[in-house]
């Protein structure tokens, strides 16, 4: 046992010792007790009532009772990391008995859900590296003073988080949910004071456009190591205070949907540090920094002009017109025509003007040249063509298809 008498805050170190010796410091104004690494199976009883900081990490504690904490009315900081505490081993509202508790560390235990009945004045809660798969809506009820919540390395999915889970955390400044199984950011995030949000190492494949819309105070956002291929335009529009955005190790597909990201990145102020926007697909741009990507390398649907298809037809085929919304031209061999009006099947077809009203082209002049090439065509969207006579013994069929 070691005492530090020079300070009004006495530190009692008890490692591999009998915890009953702690009773000798009851007359101290404020006490910090270290009982880590003692192979304790349960929360120790009969501790000094004036203990402020209690270190019980690296033991084998499995249960937490209300009676054990009810006697510690001045306890402000409790370290229970690396024990064997399970959800069923925590008596309901046990931690609420420690009415002055501000910091509660439960890292590396066996919890499957967030304990119910947390202290109302709690400011920091660490539940990382557990087996938490469920957060009930009442888990953080009345815990309005909480500022930092760490849930990294659990089994959380979107289905396991109740819709109203975070609604009472009105003073939360930091939320960390890294290394879980989220497919989208959790809904209804506390918006008033949140400045740091960690969502890296999940399975997110999309981010709804409203996910961050109310986080006006958010300064740091990490969505690295997910399954994101693209982002909806405007997804970051509400982040007026953002200073650092980390997106590395996603599956960014640099197709037409990435164009808005390029323009957005180029418009950002120098005060905003963005890391990790790098193309992964297609192969021709893999490894390129998205901000520096040449727009000419991005292929959009319909950005390439359709190629004409040529088919040589027998000369005996009749004249053909098409009702498809594409340009169709048919070339037929010469006819023995009179020198006056052409046959009805060679009259000009209706075309559409720019005002989308149907209009009819005036008939061609009388056909005087019996050997000239006759063309019938259907024009869509005001397309114009020019043709020249071809060989009188061949017929060509031109199609521009969708």
UniProtKB/TrEMBL annotation:
Keywords: Leucine-rich repeat, Repeat, Signal. It comes from the Eukaryota. Residues 346-371 are annotated as: Disordered. Transmembrane segments: none annotated. Pfam families: LRR_8 (PF13855). Residues 250-301 form the LRRCT domain. The keyword Hydrolase does not apply. GO terms for cellular component: extracellular space. This is LRRCT domain-containing protein. It comes from Aldrovandia affinis.
């Amino acid at each position: 046992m070691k005492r530090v008498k020079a300070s009004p805050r006495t530190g009692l170190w008890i490692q591999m010792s009998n915890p009953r010796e702690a009773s000798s410091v009851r007359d101290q104004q404020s006490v910090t007790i270290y009982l880590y690494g003692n192979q304790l199976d349960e929360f120790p009883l009969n501790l000094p009532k004036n203990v402020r900081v209690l270190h019980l990490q690296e033991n084998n504690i499995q249960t937490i009772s209300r009676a054990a904490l009810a006697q510690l009315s001045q306890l402000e900081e409790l370290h229970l990391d690396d024990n064997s505490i399970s959800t069923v081993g925590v008596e309901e509202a046990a931690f609420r008995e420690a009415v002055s508790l501000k910091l509660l560390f439960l890292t590396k235990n066996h919890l499957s859900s967030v304990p119910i009945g947390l202290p109302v004045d709690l400011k920091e809660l660490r539940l990382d590296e557990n087996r938490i798969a469920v957060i009930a809506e009442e888990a953080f009820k009345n815990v309005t003073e909480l500022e930092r919540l760490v849930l990294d390395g659990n089994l959380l999915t979107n289905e396991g988080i109740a819709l109203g889970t975070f609604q009472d955390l009105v003073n939360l400044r930091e939320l960390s949910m890294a290394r879980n199984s989220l497919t989208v950011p959790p809904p209804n995030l506390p918006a008033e004071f949140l400045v740091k949000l960690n969502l890296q190492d999940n399975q997110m494949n999309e981010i709804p456009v409203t996910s961050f819309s109310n986080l006006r105070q958010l300064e740091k956002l990490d969505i690295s190591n997910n399954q994101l291929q693209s982002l909806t335009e405007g997804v970051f529009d509400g982040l007026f205070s953002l200073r650092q955005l980390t997106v590395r190790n996603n599956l960014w597909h640099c197709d037409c949907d990435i164009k808005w990201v390029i323009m957005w990145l180029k418009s950002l102020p120098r005060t905003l540090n963005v890391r990790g926007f790098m193309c992964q697909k297609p192969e021709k741009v893999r490894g390129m920094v998205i901000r520096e990507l040449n727009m000419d390398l991005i292929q959009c649907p319909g950005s390439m002009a359709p190629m004409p298809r040529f088919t040589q037809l027998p000369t005996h085929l009749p004249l053909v017109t098409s009702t498809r919304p594409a340009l169709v031209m048919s070339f037929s061999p010469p006819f023995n025509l009179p020198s006056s009006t052409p046959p009805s099947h060679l009259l000009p077809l209706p075309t559409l003007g720019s005002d989308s009203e149907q209009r009819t082209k005036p008939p061609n002049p009388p056909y005087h040249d019996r050997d000239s090439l006759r063309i019938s065509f259907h024009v869509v969207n005001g397309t114009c063509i020019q043709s020249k006579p071809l060989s009188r013994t061949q017929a060509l069929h031109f199609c521009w298809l969708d």
